[in-house]
Amino acid sequence: MTEPVVAPGRARGGRRDEILTTFTRHVAERGYDRANFGDVAAELGMSKGTIVHHFGTKDRMLAEVQERYMRRRLDEAHAFLGRLGAPDERVAAFVHAGVRYSTHEPATTVAFQREVVRLTDEPGMETARAQRDAYRDLVVAVLQDGVEAGVFVPGDARLRSLQMFGSLHWMWTWFDPAGRLRPEDVAAEFCRTLLRGLGVGEERVSAAADPAGSVARCVAEVCAPRS
């Protein structure tokens, strides 16, 4: 799994990151409600008091998981949007990236996706909620730009973004990176379906969806695991 991004003002490494990584995996495997400090402490051979010292509450720990995840996703999105100019390429990049997260960061991605509903209105999630909204707004803007440029057929950009997120954010319920289809083939199929629905020509659809194409390579470079 990719090393977690450390929140500003906090030291890198040590027990704190170890605790958060273990908690994230427990949330991914069993859900937030069934994850608890006792199991994390037992696995790591420490007291629950140590976890409380570092994080305070379970709610605060989940908020940090969500914030770290979305901070990195936003950084990556800005990076690949800065390297890709065409709306169809940009939409495809979001799809390639979404499947890549599920493949290369399964625990953090599943933990985020299965508990994303908690960003709706729960206290303490304000930062993560704002980050999620900022990411959504990037996607909506790309979809709207495509319509205005005549690349996409007219339609509601916000609704289209929900269709896009719906296919990607529920991957945790069925996606197996070692399954029948390779992750890059899943991404390509998603791209083809989405871009055809937006009215993009077949030649450009094939290029944007291509697992070995320039869009997929750009995403792979931007989203490469950090050492």
From TrEMBL:
<dbReference type="InterPro" id="IPR036271">
    <property type="entry name" value="Tet_transcr_reg_TetR-rel_C_sf"/>
</dbReference>
<dbReference type="Pfam" id="PF00440">
    <property type="entry name" value="TetR_N"/>
</dbReference>
<dbReference type="InterPro" id="IPR009057">
    <property type="entry name" value="Homeodomain-like_sf"/>
</dbReference>
<dbReference type="Pfam" id="PF17932">
    <property type="entry name" value="TetR_C_24"/>
</dbReference>
<dbReference type="InterPro" id="IPR041490">
    <property type="entry name" value="KstR2_TetR_C"/>
</dbReference>
<keyword id="KW-0678">Repressor</keyword>
<protein>
    <submittedName>
        <fullName>TetR/AcrR family transcriptional regulator</fullName>
    </submittedName>
</protein>
<keyword id="KW-0804">Transcription</keyword>
<keyword id="KW-0805">Transcription regulation</keyword>
<feature type="domain" description="HTH tetR-type">
    <location>
        <begin position="13"/>
        <end position="73"/>
    </location>
</feature>
<keyword id="KW-0238">DNA-binding</keyword>
<dbReference type="InterPro" id="IPR050109">
    <property type="entry name" value="HTH-type_TetR-like_transc_reg"/>
</dbReference>
<dbReference type="InterPro" id="IPR001647">
    <property type="entry name" value="HTH_TetR"/>
</dbReference>
<feature type="DNA-binding region" description="H-T-H motif">
    <location>
        <begin position="36"/>
        <end position="55"/>
    </location>
</feature>
